[in-house]
Design a protein that fits this description.
Blueprint lengths: L2 H13 L2 H7 L4 H15 L4 E4 L2 E4 L1 H28 L5 E6 L1 H18 L4 E6 L2 H9 L5 E5 L9 E16 L12 H4 L4 E3 L4 H11 L5 H4 L2 E2 L3 H10 L3 E5 L4 H6 L2 E3 L9 E9 L7 H12 L3
Parallel strand pairs: 3-4, 3-5, 7-8, 7-9
Antiparallel strand pairs: 1-2, 5-11, 6-9, 6-10, 6-11
Helix pairs in contact: 1-2, 1-3, 1-4, 2-3
Length: about 300
Amino acid sequence: MDIRQLRHLLALAETGSFSRAAQQQNLTQSALSRSIQALEDQLGGLLLDRIGKRNELTPLGRLVLDRARRILDEADELRESARQLASGQMGALRVGLGSGPGALLMTPLLQHMATHHPGVRTEILRGAPELQLVQLRERRLDALVIDVRRIAPAADLLIQGVTELRAAFICRQQHPLCQLTTVSLDELLAYPVASTPLSDEVARLLVDAYGPRANPDQMITLCCEEVSSLLDTVRETDAVFVGVSAAARQGLLTGELVELPMNPPLQATARFAMVTLLGRTEGPAMALLRRFVQSRLHD
């Protein structure tokens, strides 16, 4: 079997017609038929049920088509990476960032690429993890940087841990709670609590530490995926942010924001990981991303 035969099968599946597929592939209809027949002979089974003028994939045909798409995507990406390396180019970088990594990485990554790698087309996408995984699998993203608790392991994903960052309750410096030596959950809940969507594991940690009222479904009153918007809200109101303290690093360094001394102390972390498709050929720019993420994600 060769890649041309797989392309012919894909064209036939997409067009549903030998004549249209042959035209798309610049072949005669008989040449396309011979190619599909040769592929069937090599695989030892029918790929198509020829029902009158209709052509339907058999179970084997659907299996082969699914694998063929991945093989052809890999071949195209490998060819493009080779072209970029031969011409001295780094190509493009398409990254999906989760809420925490987005707050820590988005602006610094854009600035870094503009300063040090201006020839690399850099695209950053934000959104819910479920949507980003779809985009990764459809090869519209090269990688995700995300809280590993927000995704489920899967056979087609390569999940590589990057770092673990401490979580905290954070408010503005003039907040009434800052006058207290320690802060209980009851005292905290007198004010709005802001956070990104939290995983079930973090929810259990909060409930174990502070009781049922710490369940995020009850405790969180301001929720969105954009940490920067939550922190802006905390700066201007009496809302309290719960999340990765590193996301508020600049405000904590200047004293504009402070960590609340909770009783008991919050023992929770966010574990960030880089997620790629298993076995996918990486473009040259991915090495830049890996180095940058390792250098930036820390408490």
